[in-house]
């Protein structure tokens, strides 16, 4: 187990930390934003970031807090049960926010078993160790993709899980393990299912940072299939607020959708980004920056979702698309090289057979 960052000598000035919070996957996109907020807003909490530093991770995402007294980074793998047990024993964890996962849908068609291993087995290791350590709250970060696609029917938290790709299937299976600890032991787990998130810190393999980075490198946006698939996009800062809300007010055993009504097709997204980055409103000039490539083996059309349950806890998204996307575009101009292998993320994805 290797730890970086400045060790706290004996807790914050004046006493011990009120809570010790383990955040997994904290060098990735969403959890890095959550950690920065937690470290800054909760100086009486110790925030421990467990991440194996996979290809999509960057410790630069944590630079604003890396020297803070109430922050600690530990490099390690959630699938290593001996290591995870030791970590819980040594760090005396009170709360877990579990984000670590394999997250790239395209890759999941090629490396399906790795997704099952990390997302299902890794989550099982974590929830079982957290249960044995008598953790007081375990938040499992899942996705709207567990519902599968729909054109009209809006999903709520009681809708059936019907995943259509290996990534979504592994997230849905992991949910079942987490939920069973509530059903069997009343171990206080909470599950969130979020729409697509965008903003700074996201490895440029995902659609928004990929299109932005391609355009900033004078390359075309590669659109899967027709590009008519519609996606809901939430800005990272809004999602951080959603997780802080669930941390404070989420009820044990409950599931919360974290969604937005804001939705656009992938073609529309590409066109908006071209207009913003290439500063053109000409249709023909816009078309020049678009390349239609083979579709995924399966590509859900929409994930319409109701989020009234988390609204009743006091959360709603606030950041308008126009503001969030401008900040994101600016960030990638300066920070694309935060990942050593960022160029690799821009390569076209190989056409693959469906997973078996
Ligand atoms: N990004 C989205 O739009 C979105 C939407 C809904 C749900 N989610 C969920 O949110 C969570 C975070 O997503 P993200 O986009 O920030 O992910 P990401 O891919 O940016 O980061 C994942 C992090 O997990 C770490 N990790 C992977 N395997 C690990 C292992 N075995 N042990 C320890 N660390 C490991 C990686 O190093 C990386 O830092 C995921 O669980 C994902 O399913 C994401």
What does it look like?
Belongs to the NAD(P)-dependent epimerase/dehydratase family. dTDP-glucose dehydratase subfamily. Its EC number is 4.2.1.46. It catalyses: dTDP-alpha-D-glucose = dTDP-4-dehydro-6-deoxy-alpha-D-glucose + H2O. There is one protein chain. This protein has a domain at 17-197 and 234-261 and 303-317: NAD(P)-binding Rossmann-like Domain (Rossmann fold). It has eleven helices and 13 strands. It has helices at residues 29-41, 81-91, 105-110, 112-132, 166-185, 207-216, 236-249, 266-278, 283-288, 308-311, 321-335, and strands spanning 2-4, 19-24, 45-51, 71-75, 95-98, 137-143, 189-194, 196-198, 221-224, 230-235, 255-258, 263-265, 290-293. Strand 2, helix 1 and strand 3 (45-51) form a beta-alpha-beta unit. Helix 2 (81-91) packs parallel to helix 4 and helix 4 runs parallel beside helix 5 (166-185). The model is unreliable at 2-10 (pLDDT under 50). The structure holds nicotinamide-adenine-dinucleotide. Residues 24-25, 27-31, 51-54, 56-57, 77-79, 99-101, 103, 118, 122, 141, 143, 171, 194, 196-197, 203 line the site of nicotinamide-adenine-dinucleotide (NAD).
């Amino acid at each position: 187990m290797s730890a970086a960052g400045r060790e706290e000598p004996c807790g914050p000035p004046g006493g011990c930390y009120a809570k010790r919070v383990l955040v997994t996957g904290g060098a990735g996109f969403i959890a890095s934003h959550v950690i920065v907020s937690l470290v800054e807003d909760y100086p009486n909490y110790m925030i421990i970031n467990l991440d194996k530093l996979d290809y999509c991770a960057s410790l630069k995402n944590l630079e604003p807090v890396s020297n803070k007294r109430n922050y600690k980074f530990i490099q390690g793998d959630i699938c290593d049960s001996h290591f995870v047990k030791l970590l819980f024993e040594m760090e005396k964890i009170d709360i877990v926010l579990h984000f670590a996962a394999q997250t790239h849908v395209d890759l999941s068609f090629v490396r399906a078993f790795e997704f099952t291993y990390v997302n299902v087995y890794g989550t099982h290791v974590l929830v079982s160790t957290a249960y044995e350590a008598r953790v007081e709250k375990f938040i499992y970060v899942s996705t709207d993709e567990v519902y599968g696609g729909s054109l009209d029917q809006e999903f709520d938290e009681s809708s059936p899980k019907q995943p259509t790709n290996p990534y979504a299937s592994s997230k849905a299976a992991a949910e079942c393990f987490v939920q069973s600890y509530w059903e069997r032991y009343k171990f206080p787990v909470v599950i969130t299912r979020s729409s697509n998130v965008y903003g700074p810190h996201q490895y440029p393999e995902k659609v928004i940072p990929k299109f932005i980075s391609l355009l900033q490198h004078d390359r075309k946006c590669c659109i899967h299939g027709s590009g008519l698939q519609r996606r809901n996009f939430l800005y990272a800062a809004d999602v951080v607020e959603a997780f802080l809300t669930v941390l404070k007010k989420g009820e044990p055993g409950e599931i919360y959708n974290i969604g937005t009504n804001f939705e656009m097709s992938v073609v529309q997204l590409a066109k908006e980004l071209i207009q913003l980055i290439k500063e053109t409103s000409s249709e023909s000039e816009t078309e020049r920056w678009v390349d239609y490539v083979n579709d995924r083996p399966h590509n859900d059309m929409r994930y319409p979702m109701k989020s009234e349950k988390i609204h009743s806890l006091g959360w709603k998204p606030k950041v308008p698309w126009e503001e969030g996307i401008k900040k994101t575009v600016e960030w990638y101009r300066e920070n694309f090289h935060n990942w050593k292998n960022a160029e690799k993320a821009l390569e076209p994805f190989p056409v693959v057979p469906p997973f078996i």
